[in-house]
Amino acid sequence: MPRLILRAAVAWCAAAAAAATAAAGPAADSAAAHGPCGCTFPVVARPGQLVVTGPAYRIVMNPPAGLFRGGAGPPQLASGYRADTPTRDVLRRPRPRWPRRAPRGRFRVPADTPPGIYLLLIFDGGEAGQHAAFDYLHVPDPPLSTEHGELHEVLAAFANVFPPL
Questions:
Q1: Over the stretch 24-33, which tens digit does the pLDDT of each residue have?
Q2: Which candidate, 84, 94, 147, 155, places its Cα nearest to that of 117?
Q3: Which of 18, 38, 53, 153 shows the greatest Cβ crowding within 10 Å of its Cβ?
Q4: pTM above 0.70, yes or no
């Protein structure tokens, strides 16, 4: 008997969720960003380095909060904005008409990009051009100079002795 009640409760919740989604209409989530897409390679890139993503006609690096108000993605992604770094359209080309898809996105990390982790908003052309995916790009600090080579070796030795938890 308890299993029957549990099954009925699960079925009711599923039906209620489906009804709420249908009532909200297709515009409620039609342009929501999906991701992280995991389509960006490499995920760690230095300034000037070539980066490749999945299909894209526009890629915004460090998108501002206002871009998410237009439905380009979940509003929570707006917290990924870095005020200390400019927003850049690192790729912008004409959106292909349906049923054609945008080719893979390719861009170079801007030369003056400071180290840090950046949100990429990737528009792929789906859903009348409003669909977007997102991913992250890490621009690392410059490598240690040769004068600190010994320190680097010591740190590497400690990393081998004390692996991360």
A1: 333 333 345 5
A2: 84
A3: 53
A4: no
